[in-house]
Amino acid sequence: MHSDTVTGKRDRAKDRRLKEVGRIRDLLARKELTLAQIDEDYHLPRGTAGNAVHEPHLAGERAIAAALGRRPEHLWFSRYRTDGTRKSPQPAENYRYARRQTAVDGTSCGAAA
Fold first, then answer.
1. Integer Cα distance of 61 and 76 in angstroms
2. pLDDT digits over 14-43, tens only?
3. What does the pLDDT average to over 60-78?
4. Which of 31, 33, 30, 88 is nearest to 58 (CA)?
5. Is the dihedral of CA 17, 66, 84, 44 positive or negative?
6. Per-residue confidence at 9, pLDDT binned at 50, 70, 90?
7. Angle CA(84)–CA(47)–CA(59) in degrees, nearest 5?
8. Treating both helix axes as pointing N-terminal to C-terminal, what angle do 9-30 and 58-68 enclose, rounded to 10 degrees?
9. Which of the 8 DSSP states describes residue 113?
10. Which domains does the chain have, with CATH numbers?
């Protein structure tokens, strides 16, 4: 009935995601861990942990959670259901640049023109 701009749903989703990111960065700082260090310790390609903080990436999420001594579903509430299973597919709001959303004309973002 209402558009997203009227209800503010996108703003709430963005705020929720930013709070998750801030909380994770705070936990990393308290343990004096860097994302680059996690990449090295868990044999991930450079930048994986940094991307996982902002966008869904299973291996990165697991590495960060292990380094913090927590479970991924306790760090990223927006990426996991309440029973601890991972959402699949991930909601478009979980991506920084909304890559998973479909275009206005109804074609998918990866479809040929």
1. 8
2. 888 889 899 999 999 999 999 999 999 999
3. 94
4. 88
5. positive
6. low
7. 30
8. 50
9. -
10. 4-94 (1.10.260)
Tokens linked to 47: 């930048």
pLDDT, position 105: 41
Residue 61: partners with Cβ closer than 8 Å, 6 or more residues away: 52, 72, 75, 76, 79
**Number of Cβ within a 10 Å radius of residue 18:** 11
Q: What distance in Å separates the CA atoms of residue 109 and residue 103, rounded to the nearest whole number?
A: 6
The pTM of the full predicted model, rounded to 2 decimals, is 0.74
Residue with tokens 């292990």: 66
CA distance 3 to 1: 7
Backbone angles phi, psi at 99, to 5 degrees: -65, -25
SS3 category, 80: strand
DSSP labels for 26-70? HHHHHTT--HHHHHHHTTPPTTHHHHHHHS--HHHHHHHHHHHTS
